[in-house]
Every structure is written in C-alpha cells, then in structure tokens.
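Quick one:
INPUT:
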C-alpha cells in the first residue's frame, strides 16, 4: 500500500495490481480515516487475518476495550493469551498470591524451576509473559482484593473476568458491576480437574444476528449470578446438566465450611454427600440427579486443573468476550459446562421465570 495517498498515480497503480483481500482492507481503512477512527497501519497489518473474519469495526472495538481479570490459574492463562493475541485494548491482572509449585500443573507462563525461586506474584509473572505475546496490548497489574474496591474503580473496564473466588465475593463483584451506569460484562470461570463452568452476565445486551433474509437486531436480558442460582431446582428442565447441580453443592459446602475456593479433598466426601441430601430435599430434587461419582471426582480434585479442559474453557471464554465486545455472534445465556468424561460442551440457560 502506498505510504503517501496524495500521489494519485501510485495509488492507481497499486489499486490495479493489489489482491482483493488487500483492496478490502484498504477501503475499510479509508472509510475509517474519513470517520476519524482509523486503525493504525501496524494494527491493520498485525490483525489482518482477524479483520477478514470479523471486520474492521469489530477489531476497532476490541482495540478500545479494557478487560480486568481477577484470580489467575491455568484456565485464565489460556483466556488471557487468547484475548491478548486478538488485540484487546488493555488487560489488567489481579492476583497477589506468590508463584509456587502448585500453580505449574496447568500453566504455561512459567517453568517448575521459576516456580521454585520466584518471589513474584502470579499477576506480575502473567503480566511479563503476556507483554511478549503482543506488545501492542497494554498489560498491567493491580494489587489488592477486587471485592474491596469501590464501584468507581469498575468504571475503568468494559469486561470483568473472575476466578479463584468465593461465591460470596463473586456475587458482591457482580452486583457492583450492575450498579454502574455503564454496562460492564461480567464472567466467572472455574475448572475442577476434568470439569469446568463459565457464567456470563451481559445485563441488557443487544447484538446483530445474520438471517437468511438479512441482519436483525436481537436483545437479551441476563440475570445476575445471585438471581440465576436462586432459581428453584424443581423449576429447571429435567435435562439440565448434572454438573450445574454438583457445582452448586460444592459452593454451598465451601461457604458452610469457610473454605477457600476448591479447597477440598477426598476426605470431605461424606460431608458433601450429606449436604447434597439436605439441598435436594429442600429443592424437591432426587439425590440421584447428582451422582456420587461426579461429586467424588470434583471433591477429590481440589484446586487441580486438567490442562486440556483449561484450553477448552479458556478458548470458549475468549470467544464469548470477543462476541460481547464486538457485538457479533450469538452469546451464551448464561452458563457453559464442559466435562472431559463425555467430551461434551453444554450451554444452559438458568434464569428466573421473569427473564425467560
């Protein structure tokens, strides 16, 4: 592409010889110049293939979006890598825990040797690695616990992704997002060995959907995390994945025992099974709907993550965040589950009747 677009002859020669894909990018950039919102030449070159898939406008929205991630593990590492490569505007990381050997099992941002001798926090190590993936993305670290920050802090961001966090704190953070004037997309992601869960709250969300007769505007209303999980189990479809109920049992167990997220072991199974019985009795659900073997597997896993499951969950989460920012593609409403035992990914809408 000619450097000086005032040289008409050079432009004409280039237009006559350029391949169609380059012509498309040229005219898209020209349109954005006229609108005063041009992607830089460096951005256009780096994200050339992505622009061909979802267009310049979507890439432009990505390059302006600010994402905050709190709680870092193998699944979140995969997610961060994906959105940094996609060209997000900025990524802020929060996790003051020090790097240790327990964190290396599903993590590709540091080696076992680095884990032994590092005195850095997980957020600092992730930050240094992610900057190398894409120098055009601003990656930074914020210290502290997210649930202690006031609402104004959240206004800096378009997307929040939460992991390694108690149910109580997830609900507090989600509600703070919903209290802001701007819409802040909220996600949680958890991986327990070979099972994983993603929750999505886009609040009031509109997007374009392609139909055979053209493009139509679609609108979705999302419940908060608190509203979603308060939906009575007896009101849910019989085919609702068993993993949904198992995850709720484990959350209740950790809360009742004052445990940190995923702080369980096989010795906890008898208490977990008793809690399952109590919850099922209260909710009018047969205990067999939450199999012993599934709970045993999740409880014994503790904080252990299965790397292939991390890759799948991180990929799906990255895809959903890009959808929400770009406004292109049907977003999940409002839970996603994956279980390596059967290799199935399942989308579930868990909402009070008023949101259906």
């Amino acid at each position: 592409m000619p450097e000086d677009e005032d040289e008409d002859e050079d432009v004409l020669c280039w237009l006559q010889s350029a391949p169609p894909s380059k012509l498309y990018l040229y005219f898209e950039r020209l349109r954005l110049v006229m609108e005063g919102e041009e992607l830089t030449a460096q951005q256009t070159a780096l994200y050339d293939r992505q622009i061909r898939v979802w267009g310049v406008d979507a890439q432009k929205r990505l390059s302006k979006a600010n994402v905050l991630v709190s709680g870092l593990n193998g699944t979140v590492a995969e997610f961060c890598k994906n959105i940094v490569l996609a060209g997000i505007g900025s990524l802020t990381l929060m996790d003051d825990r020090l790097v240790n050997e327990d964190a290396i099992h599903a993590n590709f941002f540091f080696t076992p040797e680095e884990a032994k001798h590092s005195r850095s926090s997980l957020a600092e190590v992730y930050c240094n690695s992610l900057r190398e993936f894409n120098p055009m993305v601003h990656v930074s670290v914020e210290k502290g616990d997210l649930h202690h920050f006031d609402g104004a802090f959240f206004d800096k961001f378009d997307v929040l992704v939460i992991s390694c966090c108690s149910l109580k704190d997830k609900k507090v953070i989600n509600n703070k997002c919903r209290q802001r004037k701007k819409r802040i997309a909220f996600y949680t992601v958890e991986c327990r060995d070979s099972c994983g869960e993603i929750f999505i709250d886009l609040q009031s969300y509109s997007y374009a959907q392609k139909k055979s007769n053209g493009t139509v505007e679609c609108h979705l209303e999302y419940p908060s995390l608190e509203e979603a999980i308060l939906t009575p189990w007896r009101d849910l479809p019989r085919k609702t994945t068993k993993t949904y109920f198992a995850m709720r049992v484990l959350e209740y167990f950790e809360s009742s025992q004052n445990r940190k997220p995923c702080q369980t072991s096989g010795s906890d199974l008898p208490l977990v099974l008793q809690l399952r019985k109590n919850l099922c009795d209260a909710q009018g659900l047969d205990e067999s709907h939450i199999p012993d073997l599934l709970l045993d597997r999740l409880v014994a896993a503790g904080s252990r993550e299965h790397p292939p499951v991390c890759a799948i969950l991180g990929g799906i989460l990255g895809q959903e965040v890009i959808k929400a920012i770009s406004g292109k593609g049907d977003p999940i409403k409002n839970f996603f589950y994956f279980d390596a035992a059967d290799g199935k990914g399942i989308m579930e809408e868990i909402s009070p009747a008023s949101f259906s």
